[in-house]
Amino acid sequence: MFALANGGALFLDEIGELTFALQTQLLRVIQEHTFKRVGGNAWQRTSFRLVCATNRNLLAQVKKANSARIFITVSPAISVICLPCGNALKTFFCWPGTF
Asked: How many CB atoms lie within 10 A of CB 71?
């Protein structure tokens, strides 16, 4: 996956579900730009943009010390918070009258 993303972008969905062990491995790839293939011995270089999504409040999880502590505290991030679809539908039906 990291080799395919080289020079481009990698999208990881449900990043809040990663175990602590996977978080540390992903952090190594992000910081050192290197990874080993499964069953391989050689380190390979990679460079990509990382885009993540989750439906969890990661900052709340960090405060509870459940998970995501390493990933959130080290990686710079821009948060985009989307409303649930139920709230968005109420707003959507108001739009036709405004145009």
From this structure: 22
